[in-house]
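Researcher: Structure for this, please.
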Amino acid sequence: MSTQIQVPQLGESVTEATIGQWLKQPGDQVALDEPIASLETDKVAIDVMAPAAGVLGQHLAIEGDNVAVGAVISTIEDSTAVAGAAPVAPREEKPVPPASDTLPKNAPPVGSIDEAAVLSPSARKAVLEFGIDPAGVKGTGKDGRLTKEDIVAAAQAKQASPAPAASAAAPASAAAPAVAGERREERVKMTRLRQTVAKRLKSAQETAALLTTFNDVDMTAVIEARDKYKDLFEKKHGQRLGFMGFFAKASCLALKDVPAANAYIEGDEIVYHDYVDISVAVSAPNGLVVPVVRNADQLSFAQIEKAIAGYGKKAKDGTLTMDDMKGGTFTISNGGVFGSLMSTPIINPPQSAVLGLHRIEDRPVARGGQVVIRPMMYIALSYDHRLIDGREAVTALKIIKEAIEDPTRLLIDL
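Model: Predicted structure, token format:
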């Protein structure tokens, strides 16, 4: 008896995905709800879980294939039935050798493939993988049957034995050694996520009237507040106090005063929001993703920091969901963690503005007629000029600057 493995529902309006990686191979034992494959959608990677326990059947799609929701990509066979299958009597005649390009390069001699027919799927897979002749291996399983472990042990023993001396004359077909300084190229297919990011960013440039305004921020007050309270904050909330909480709260102040920066264009209408859902750009193994901190204007510093930290961990583990990415009215992108001094970030459609943060560095500035050294950061606001006027963009960025330089403003809503 077999159970079909189908592509699960991937979220609203998502109809297909790409096989990113098979986590289990044919013949492997799988447990119920164990991840067996990773699917790449336009936004996130999603694991396909085993619908039953047993032995994984053949892959019906290879890595890189596009598969529709509901498509069958493999099966799970009943492990009891597989293990208890009656041995197949060996045939006297040897099978006709298949074409050379249909066997793995390290496959065992053709005559031994017939003997492998009585093996379990995992043992048969090991025979083909390691190129071991099962006829020369003593089985330790029930009734002397070969197990996967027997094949692996035989392969290890074969590798440990001394290799025969190389012949004096190398065959003419031997591969030539790599030449020092040789120039090589490698072609790697773009992941679905990277393709989607590329299309969205290019679309943003072609559709929106993008413009960026800059300012610089004296980080002295925030650094002093953070250094003073970080230990108490972590003790009380179980979360480190970072800089993103300050910028998120400062952005909420700016977006309430400049509502166009928290809106977007839809057709010939402008859609305004009385809430702030901040998309936070996070680096994931497959590319940049932007999970959403919802109702950021209603959250405390601790809640914002916990949400961002949680998304960072999920991005690293590859466990972000479609719901984590849905929505967002404004984006914050922190290139400073990678050392960026200044940049012009691109908006995240359909949003109309994005705040870019950069690295903090000591620079000489004038204060009270004196040149002093202060920890400074350049900040940038890219915006859609179709919706946001220059005055509004500059005002929004100035509010953020003032709130960071005087964090008391965050408490009294100034």
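Researcher: Any notable elements?
Model: Residues 85-117, 163-174 have pLDDT under 50 and may be disordered. DSSP finds eleven helices and 19 strands in the chain.
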